[in-house]
Structures are given as C-alpha cells and as structure tokens.
Write a structure and sequence with these properties.
By secondary structure, the protein is mainly beta. The protein is built from one helix and 27 strands. It has three domains: about 100 residues, Sandwich (Immunoglobulin-like); about 110 residues, Immunoglobulins (Immunoglobulin-like, Sandwich); about 110 residues, Immunoglobulins (Immunoglobulin-like, Sandwich), CATH 2.60.40. A hairpin with a 3-residue loop joins strand 10 and strand 11. It is globular and about 65 Å long.
Length: about 375
C-alpha cells in the first residue's frame, strides 16, 4: 500500500433531527450571552433575573421563500418548543389569525427540559394566490402569564381550483324557495378531458339543502355547479354550516364550503356566549377511541330546553350536560366532544349544533370545529 494512501474513515452516524433541535434550543441562549457579553461597555452591568420566558422556539418565523409552494390542500408548518425553566409550563390558549388555520400542540403541559411540537395546518383550498402571512399567538403560564406569536410567510400558487363564492353568506330574512348557486372551477390542463367526478354532496344543517346542479365547460375550465336551497324562518341568531363535496380527485377528495345564514340580532337578555368560539378535535387515524376532543361551554337563557346536539360529519360525538348559571336567568351547557369512529371523509372542518326549544319555538346555536388528523 502506498504510504500516502490512507484508509478512508467511516463517518460518525448522524444524530436524529429531534436531538439536533434539542441541542440548538439549549445552546442558543448561551451563545447569545457569549457574543453580547464579550464586548466592553461603559454601561451598567446586565442584571440576571428569573423572569425570562420559559419557552424557547426553534423558530418564530417560517418563511417558505419567494417562490410559490406546490398546489396542495394542506400546508403544515412545524414549530418546536423547549421548556428552559425548572417549572412545568401550561399552554392556556392558541389564537389563530385565520379560520383556515388549525393549530395543534403535542402537549398542553410542558415539563422542564421537554421538547414539544406545534403544528399549524393551513387549509389552502379557498385561500387566494400570492403572498400570504399567517400567525398564531400561543398563550401560556410559567406560572406568569405569557404570550408569543409565531408567523408563517408563504407565496401561494395560482389557483387550480376556485370555489365561488368561497363562503356562502345569506344575511337577514330568508325567503321561501330562495336558491343560491356555488360554482367550482377547475383550471388544471387536463380538466376538460377528465373533469372532477362528484360522488356526493351533503349539508350539515336542516336550514339548507345542497345538491349537484350540473357540470359544464366554460372559458377553458371545467365547472361544477351546486344548487343550495334555504329553509324559511330560521331560528334567531347567526348560524354556521358546511357543504361537503366528495370527489374522485386525488388532490381534492373533499371540498368543503362554509355557509353562514341569519343574523346576530338578539335581545340582550337572550344573548348567547360560547367558549371557545371555535372547537377542535384531534383524530387518531390508527385508533379512533384514542382521539381527543374538548369541552365547549354554552351560556344560554335558562328557559331554553336543550333537546339534542348534532355533529357534522358523522363519527364525531357530542354529549351535553346542563347546570344552573351564575344568575337565575342563565344556564351553562357543557358539550363534550369525542370520536366514536373515523369520519368517512378526511375533512378538515366540522360543525356542532346545539338544539333547544323556547316554549315551542325552536332555537339553535352552531359552533365551527377544526379537525386535526394524526
């Protein structure tokens, strides 16, 4: 063997991405202190306090760059966080900037030194193209109340599938037989030769019905028309619903169209309060029984007689229990969400409807629910 030749060395095995993230989160504060502390200064010495926020995130801005991302129904940025304190941290709330966001965190209680994952799925189907910015504000206690805002910047591609209107809104009085048309336009190159085949159209509410009205080609796009008819004399309040359009398309197996009907005009004594205003269910695809729901509290008049709860789509279960409110004229209805079986469609949104009667008059309150699939 030539003396100058050397036996190649086997490189050390790569560490897992999780280990790298833990290490980075641990050393960033130390590196910052070393850099900024190495310069001489005539100013007062820095004071070290124990009031520093406990949570450190791997990044606070997820920037996808200047180029449009690929067309997809769901974009899911991931943020990692580490508890740098010696006390347990409790996540108290996550407030998203857009209804198209469905934030989810791997644990609401973060042990000292633990690393958890925050997912921020963004539903892109009805989002306009171009530069977009989304945020989620995380509220937590360490035990001092704190908040931190995470940001996602992304350029969305030109729409290949456009739903018009994006949200079907019918305000005020609904007339008998009132009809609205929703159009789904497919601009993909092969859509004229192979248009989307709609396999079913279902609505979430008794306030309206939806059905396929036809498919046709127009201005270089394949278009699908839906006909929506609304019921006359809907109960007071502003009600939310969904239309699920199931298709044979791999990229768009289910298209969800939000519906808003009615208005928010109620007497002050009949005001309705819901907490939280948007619910969430985390669906375990491997075992539906291990899915996790939440409790939604309704503050409603005590004279209302709650009759039942409806969930759309099927598979999500809502059980309710009523207790007296803080005053005699009010009551609190706690609705517990769970999963009995996996919904047949992998939808990202659901609707909870609380049904009641006031003497003989029907009443209802609707709450949008984000579905997070794991």
């Amino acid at each position: 063997m030539n003396a100058e030749e050397k036996t190649p060395q086997t490189p050390p095995p790569a560490r897992s991405s999780q280990t790298w993230i833990v290490g980075l989160l641990a050393v960033v504060p130390c590196l910052s202190a070393a850099v900024f502390g190495s310069h001489n200064s005539n100013g007062p010495a820095c004071l070290v306090t124990s009031s520093r926020p406990a949570l450190v995130f791997s990044e606070y801005l997820a920037d996808y760059g200047p180029s449009p991302v690929a067309q997809q129904p769901l974009l899911t940025p991931i943020f990692y966080l580490r508890n740098n304190s010696t006390e347990k941290v409790k996540i108290t709330n996550m407030q998203a900037s857009c209804g198209c966001l469905a934030p989810s965190i791997s644990a609401t209680e973060v042990e000292p030194g633990a690393v958890e994952k925050l997912s921020l799925p963004i539903r892109l189907n009805n989002e306009p193209s171009g530069s977009r910015e989304y945020t989620v504000t995380v509220y937590y206690a360490d035990p001092k109340p704190r908040e931190v805002t995470l940001t996602v910047k992304v350029v969305l591609p030109e729409k290949s599938l456009i739903v018009e209107p994006r949200v079907l809104m019918v305000m005020g009085t609904v007339k008998s037989g009132q009809e609205h048309i929703i159009t789904i336009s497919d601009f993909r190159p092969d859509s004229l030769e192979k248009p989307i085949r709609v396999t079913s159209v279902t609505g979430s509410s008794s306030l309206f019905t939806a059905q396929l009205a036809g498919q046709f080609a127009s201005e270089g796009a394949s278009r699908t028309a839906l006909s929506v008819h609304f019921r006359e004399n809907a109960p007071l309040g502003r009600h939310r619903g969904l239309i699920n359009v199931a298709t044979d398309d791999e990229l768009f197996p289910v298209i969800q169209i939000p519906v808003v009907v009615g208005d928010s005009k109620r007497a002050l004594s009949d005001s309705i309060r819901v907490s939280p205003e948007v619910g969430r269910v985390v669906i375990n695809t491997a075992d539906a029984a291990n899915s996790s729901g939440m409790v939604i509290a309704f503050d409603i008049p005590s004279r209302w007689n709650v009759t039942h709860c409806d969930m759309f789509p099927a598979g999500i279960v809502a059980n309710y229990a009523s207790t007296p409110g803080a005053v005699a004229e009010r009551q609190t209805v706690n609705v517990t969400l769970s999963v009995s079986e996996l919904p047949t469609l992998r939808a990202e949104q659901a609707v909870l409807t609380l049904n009641a009667t006031d003497n003989e008059a029907p009443e209802m309150v609707t709450v949008p629910i984000n579905l997070v699939w794991k």
